Amino acid sequence: LEYICPVSRFRNSLEMPTLWGGFSPGVSSVVKPPPGAPTRVAVAGKKDLVDLVHLEEDELEEQFVRGSGPGGQATNKTSNCVVLKHIPSGIVVKCHQTRSVDINRKRAREIMQQKLDVFYKGEHSDILVRKKEAEVKKQDKRRRVKENLERKRLFKEGLQAQNTPGKETV
């Protein structure tokens, strides 16, 4: 018996053609982009995507070290903290956000991509541009809130001045 995928004319996802021509045995084209292609990564839960540099695995040096911080003995004795070093730039990222080594490896690579984007593009980095936009938006919101509070205060003072004894109210 052969299993034929009902959605596709291919037997399984391992035989699907890539977007760049040919077939990719064992790896789908979504998982493995061609070398040098920009990687699209979601930033801060937003729906729009940012072009980040593609990480070459041969340029990375990865170590697993013991974790630290809250969690007691379970955290201190397991080597699930990932230290990732980008050899050409010398940037080092340490990730110990979860107890899972696989998730920490993935997150360390995401952080590394963001840091490399800032390193190579400088002030024109998409990450920095978005942070600046968010900061300006936050300051604008604070300013509007302050103005509204000031208007309310002046309005209440005006009402109190009208309702003082000895003056007629309209």
From TrEMBL:
- Where is it chiefly localized? mitochondrion
The UniProt family comment states: Belongs to the prokaryotic/mitochondrial release factor family.
Task: State the Pfam families in the record.
Answer: RF-1
Which keywords describe this protein according to UniProt? Coiled coil, Methylation, Mitochondrion, Protein biosynthesis, Transit peptide
Which locations, inside or outside the cell, does it occupy?
Answer: Mitochondrion
**Subunit field text:** Interacts (via C-terminus) with MTRES1 (via S4 domain). Associates with mitoribosomal S39 large subunit, peptidyl tRNA and nascent chain.
In residue numbers, the region (Disordered) covers 135-170
One GO CC term of this entry?
mitochondrion
One GO molecular function term? Answer: translation release factor activity
Sorted alphabetically, which InterPro entries does this protein's record hold? Mito_Transl_Release_Factor (IPR052405), Pep_chain_release_fac_I (IPR000352), Pep_chain_release_fac_I_sf (IPR045853)
Which organism does this sequence originate in?
Answer: Hippocampus comes
What residue stretches are annotated with the Prokaryotic-type class I peptide chain release factors domain? 53-151
Name of this chain's protein: Mitochondrial translation release factor in rescue
